[in-house]
Amino acid sequence: MKIVISVHHFPPDRIGGAELRAFDMAMWLMQMGHEVRVVTVRNLEKDEQSGIRWSDEEYQGIPVRRLTLVLPSNDKLRFVSLYDNPLIEENLRKYLEAFQPDVFHMVSGYLLGAGAVRAAKSLGIPVTITLTDFWFICPRINMLKSDGSISNKDEFNPETCARCLLAEKRRFQLVYSLFSSPGVSELRQWIEHRLVSQKVVDDLAEQVEQRYITLMGVLDSADSLIFPSRYLLSVCKTRGVTPEKMVYIPHGIHTIGEVQRASLTQPPIRVGYLGQVEHHKGVHLLIEAFLKAASAQDMRLSLFGSSSSNQDYQHKIELLARQDDRIELRGGYSISEIPEILSKLDVVVIPSLWNEIGPLVMFEALRSKVPVIASNIPNMSYEIQDGINGLLFEVGNEDALADILSMLAQHPEKLDGMSRNIQPVRTLEQEMEEIQQIYRQKAG
């Protein structure tokens, strides 16, 4: 079969969960004899007029078309172009028409959006979408409000979304830095309502509603929708997505290069974080908890991850890390380095503040017999059995995480016990066999 996979970014430019998922899929399909190509976005630029450039390259034997999107400086036009870009549609239609794939498989939807799906459908190509986040229903992708709380999964409120997006504007940042504690939330809301007129809110709410209508239509137009998360599936079902198109296929992990954790024989305990350095990932929470842990002198914390696009947040992380020489910022890493990194850790922490869609690093850690400490949010709490193969703490509660780290510092033998309890994880082969069956059904 001839298959095109689209994803917002692709290695080696950036490495995140969706990027790794698309790479693993492409490699497996090629090994099975399929002809695979990848379409992705390399850069976003801003100018008076929209534009698009591209280059056709190859990464580890995979043909990759990398797009550079030039977004209009006008706020309203830029907002639309980030989910429904006619230049992407035109570019992809020509690309797909020349290649004539049997299947178009979109991973996530972010950046390539409605235009990419419309291009495939216009040529009669079956479309499969794997939803790896909340992008189709949330402009911020993560269903987190501007105050850090989790949005209501059961309802869509355009005005709430609009105010959330407006809070990202620079004028609101000082307000949030001064009035971030729960006790002054009413005062913060009062100030917010006076920083922006209701007309501005209403205009943006209208744009948000149109986005929602458009992207719900995209999901409805797809031939199949793959959900690696039962929680995300339930959210989309509540929002009215066609149930007959929805299928739950949990993540699988490739077993090539597997290196298992060595038993903890002596201090220090090696604590690690792997992933994006972003606020919603809770990296600051982990560092603050580590600094608070009263008994953590025999611990070391290593943070592996690409620098954040949010330079203010990156600077905050650097300042926090400088407070203790036991904390090390290791920077980005390649896909091939993951097994070796995990082999040198005793425990991995996933302190996310949002409803992760089954983070791949969790499965990678479990595959390597490394216990996981995670926020007690859906998807992660389904996989991590508290006290059995890892530990759970209340999402956003740095004191609870600090207590766990202190406990492990005093009782490091618990990590070996949890490591022995870890059961074999689902493999990439198992996942891809199910996806391949969907391809066959839809491509006829």
TrEMBL record:
<feature type="domain" description="Glycosyltransferase subfamily 4-like N-terminal">
    <location>
        <begin position="16"/>
        <end position="136"/>
    </location>
</feature>
<feature type="domain" description="Glycosyl transferase family 1">
    <location>
        <begin position="268"/>
        <end position="421"/>
    </location>
</feature>
<dbReference type="GO" id="GO:0016757">
    <property type="term" value="F:glycosyltransferase activity"/>
</dbReference>
<dbReference type="Pfam" id="PF13579">
    <property type="entry name" value="Glyco_trans_4_4"/>
</dbReference>
<dbReference type="InterPro" id="IPR050194">
    <property type="entry name" value="Glycosyltransferase_grp1"/>
</dbReference>
<dbReference type="InterPro" id="IPR028098">
    <property type="entry name" value="Glyco_trans_4-like_N"/>
</dbReference>
<dbReference type="InterPro" id="IPR001296">
    <property type="entry name" value="Glyco_trans_1"/>
</dbReference>
<dbReference type="Pfam" id="PF00534">
    <property type="entry name" value="Glycos_transf_1"/>
</dbReference>
<protein>
    <recommendedName>
        <fullName>Glycosyltransferase subfamily 4-like N-terminal domain-containing protein</fullName>
    </recommendedName>
</protein>
